[in-house]
């Protein structure tokens, strides 16, 4: 049973199953699907429904785990310490945001359809789960390009969250900046708890975490960002020793950050089924300019932006990780065009018109077909290598894409021979 669960996590099956179930249900029983996702014990018109439970509460844990990965990457031994090590992938991250935005707005100008221009933030983030899976198939799990991609994906998802917070507040409820003081207070409380030696992650979640969530909610900003402000203050290891150091390093790591992730990684990985089910119910007829704008921005904008910015970084003295070259960078850029999870998330808050929202979500769903193109391109360019990942990475199999991210990111600068 444990091995079956690990397989479900490794191949992102819960997320994919939720997406396929939602699409099938929405197309064969649209009314019952809408009734299900909008059902609430407080009545059909209540905001507190399945969407609220998944997008506002559950996703706070998802993004909290992503924040944990970035926090550890900033520690000694991590790929954001010293900062120079991360300049190239972070330059790629900027390209992975500006490239899609440029292509999206260019499509709006070309078609003359400015009604969808406000959705420029939809294609800015990368789906960590699918990108991790496809990259391992394209490159082999030990290739530094996988680490490069995952660092880039976590970083541009962070930018995607910032875009949601700043540019996509709820139009029916104007932003109330005064409540951000509650978020600041939650951060201060988390810092004080750390200084006082509090090591129980439940204390951080129940205290500063809930306060941060309430502050964002009443400020009319997306509360899914709540734990991003709190998780970095949880006590962590002194060095970034990898996700599985506690079981392979000969001693236990009892730090709060790792306990938090190890407790929630399985519920979050499996809970992505609910996210897919609640957000991917798009009728197949929902195709329009927003569909093609999102799809082209992801497939073309991501590829060109990441390749261009990262290649420019090499010219100004910040080289690619050892073992990567222009061919593998091109494949990485295209792989980042898998924008399913966060693109669906942003589309849900970027548009209020159901028709445009559905068309934008369709573009996000169609980005799934970038995957076979990535595998074909990887085979054509011969970027795949033999799987020579370190022994401790074997335990990463089945641990889920987010949980495996830090272990892969930790190896981003390790020299690996690339098959020419």
Can you put this structure into words, describing what you see?
This protein has 420 residues and is mainly α. The protein has one domain (2-168, 222-409): Na+/H+ antiporter like domain (Na+/H+ antiporter like fold, Up-down Bundle). The protein is 62% helix and 0% strand. The protein contains 17 helices and no strands. It has helices spanning 2-10, 13-28, 30-37, 50-73, 87-111, 128-139, 144-167, 180-195, 201-218, 245-248, 256-279, 289-315, 326-335, 340-350, 354-366, 370-381, 401-409. α2 (13-28) packs across α3. The longest helix is centred in the C-terminal third of the chain and has 27 residues, at 289-315. The protein is globular. It starts with a helix and ends in an 11-residue tail after the last helix. Mean pLDDT is 82; it is low at 243-251 and 387-420.
Helical proportion, percent range: 55-70%
CATH class: Mainly Alpha
The helix count comes to: 17
C-alpha termini separation: 41 Å
Question: What's the number of domains?
Answer: 1
Describe the protein's topology:
Layout: H1 2-10, H2 13-28, H3 30-37, H4 50-73, H5 87-111, H6 128-139, H7 144-167, H8 180-195, H9 201-218, H10 245-248, H11 256-279, H12 289-315, H13 326-335, H14 340-350, H15 354-366, H16 370-381, H17 401-409
Summarize the structure.
This protein has 420 residues and is mainly alpha-helical. The chain contains 17 helices and no strands.
Summary tags:
single chain; 420 residues; mainly alpha; Na+/H+ antiporter like fold; 17 helices; 62% helix; globular; disordered C terminus
